């Protein structure tokens, strides 16, 4: 057994208290062995210095489209429908496997450097993303996004079959760091008969389901008009909602839908920056929490955010949560830190998001020496309101050090940035 000690710092415990402690990790098994005093924990084979730092659970980006880093700044300042139809879908039609690989490498580098150790991704050429996950050491839940808009029946069926085949083939990839899911795009971009045919297959095979839902009013009204049901009631009639399902956005959910989500134990992934940028609305996060709905946090893609920094996302979630309720006590710091860690972990079904013996050794160390983090009155408050992704000095996933002293250990960052820039320019030129 090879062990790693993360020592000399403070540790964020599951009850949101902070204490001086060292952490001993089994690097081979990828799990936390012990947390305590240096004498109690002992010396590992390797040592990671957390002096003047706070060790936190690795952040979990529970909804993104990581290869969309290639579209960062390509199309801004439009509402969702126009943004997708006029700018994003035409370029995505020209995507090649090497584009997705380059975009995924860039996004994963950005996430590791800002303390994210796991993410959920719905996109295309997902075999490339799975291989990048294997190479870089991060953890991921992956699904091939499938859609029926603009496709004939044969093309659409092929898309859905491919999504299921990907889920079957790649579950457990990268020494178990990859989990898979079945990912129809949304309730308005997929014809009902495809839900009726393929959801039962996913259910029979135990494949988790992830969709976009209730993101905009334009996604809610057509379903109400056509089916005389709210979108999540309609989704439930198709057996989409369950304890291994999670939905992205959930901006426009009413009280009955909140109760339904709680009853089905279906998680909601809040994406506040994307929702604000696309003017989709303000999700009722405090009402979801009050209804005992499990809420995680995600950045969405870099095309609609425009970064993958989960610390930014926590701050946005706390701020917009207060504005949505006109209550300064709503969505407090502790709640958003939980959303970015254990809430997202619960949605993805992974044993991460907490620092306890037996949990996955997915950890990040925040350097507390910056002037914007002084004085240290309340470190949980700092995590939500003041910490930046660039304050992360070390990142550990599955017991392996992915970044030490701001230097990536598994990625050639300069090469990744150059390649992604070249691929992005060539992609847009092809589309134009």
TrEMBL record:
Bilayer-crossing regions: none
GO molecular function, one term: S-adenosylhomocysteine deaminase activity
Catalytic activity: S-adenosyl-L-homocysteine + H2O + H(+) = S-inosyl-L-homocysteine + NH4(+); S-methyl-5'-thioadenosine + H2O + H(+) = S-methyl-5'-thioinosine + NH4(+)
EC number(s) on file: 3.5.4.28, 3.5.4.31
Span of domain Amidohydrolase-related: 54-401
Cofactor: Zn(2+)
Database matches in InterPro entries: Amidohydro-rel, Deaminase_MtaD/DadD, Metal-dep_hydrolase_composite, Metal_Hydrolase, MTA/SAH_deaminase
Pfam families: Amidohydro_1
Keywords: Hydrolase, Metal-binding, Zinc
SUPFAM superfamilies according to UniProt: Composite domain of metallo-dependent hydrolases (SSF51338), Metallo-dependent hydrolases (SSF51556)
Name by which UniProt lists this protein: 5-methylthioadenosine/S-adenosylhomocysteine deaminase
Source species of the chain: Halovenus rubra
Encoding gene, per UniProt annotation: mtaD
């Amino acid at each position: 057994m090879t062990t790693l000690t993360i020592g000399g710092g403070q540790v964020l415990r599951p009850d949101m208290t902070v204490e001086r402690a060292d952490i001993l990790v089994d690097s081979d098994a990828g799990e936390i062995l012990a947390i305590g005093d240096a004498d109690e924990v002992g010396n590992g084979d390797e040592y990671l210095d957390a002096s003047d730092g706070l060790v936190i659970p690795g952040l979990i980006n529970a909804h993104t489209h990581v290869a969309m880093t290639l579209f960062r700044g390509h199309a801004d300042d439009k509402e969702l429908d126009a943004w997708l139809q006029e700018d994003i879908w035409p370029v995505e039609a020209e995507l090649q496997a090497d584009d997705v690989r380059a975009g995924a490498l860039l996004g994963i580098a950005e996430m590791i450097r800002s303390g994210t150790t796991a993410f959920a991704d719905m996109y295309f050429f997902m075999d490339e993303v799975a291989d990048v996950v294997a190479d870089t050491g991060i953890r991921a839940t992956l699904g091939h996004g499938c859609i029926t808009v603009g496709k004939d029946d044969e093309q659409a069926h092929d898309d859905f079959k491919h999504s299921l085949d990907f889920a079957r083939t790649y579950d457990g990839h990268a020494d178990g760091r990859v989990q898979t899911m079945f990912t129809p795009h949304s309730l308005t971009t997929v014809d009902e008969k495809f839900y009726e045919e393929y959801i039962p297959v996913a259910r029979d095979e135990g494949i988790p389901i992830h969709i976009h839902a209730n993101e905009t009013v334009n996604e809610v009204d057509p379903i109400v008009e056509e089916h005389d049901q709210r979108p999540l009631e309609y989704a439930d009639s198709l057996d989409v909602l369950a304890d291994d399902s999670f939905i992205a956005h959930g901006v426009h959910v009413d009280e009955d839908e909140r109760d339904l989500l709680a009853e089905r134990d279906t998680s909601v992934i809040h994406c506040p920056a994307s929702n604000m940028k696309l003017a989709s609305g303000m999700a009722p996060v405090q009402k979801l929490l009050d209804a005992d709905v499990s809420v995680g946090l995600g950045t969405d893609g870099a095309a609609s955010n425009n970064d993958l920094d989960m610390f930014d996302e926590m701050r946005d979630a706390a701020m917009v949560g207060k504005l949505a309720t006109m209550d300064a006590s709503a969505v407090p710091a502790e709640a958003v830190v939980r959303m970015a860690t254990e809430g997202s972990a619960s949605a993805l079904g992974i044993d991460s998001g907490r620092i306890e013996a037996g949990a996955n050794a997915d950890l990040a160390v925040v350097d507390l020496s910056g002037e914007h983090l002084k004085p240290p009155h309340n470190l949980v408050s700092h995590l939500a309101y003041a910490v930046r992704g660039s304050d992360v000095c070390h990142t550990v996933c599955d017991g392996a050090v992915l970044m030490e002293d701001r230097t990536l250990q598994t990625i050639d960052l300069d090469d990744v940035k150059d390649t992604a820039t070249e691929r992005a320019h060539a992609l847009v030129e092809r589309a134009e």
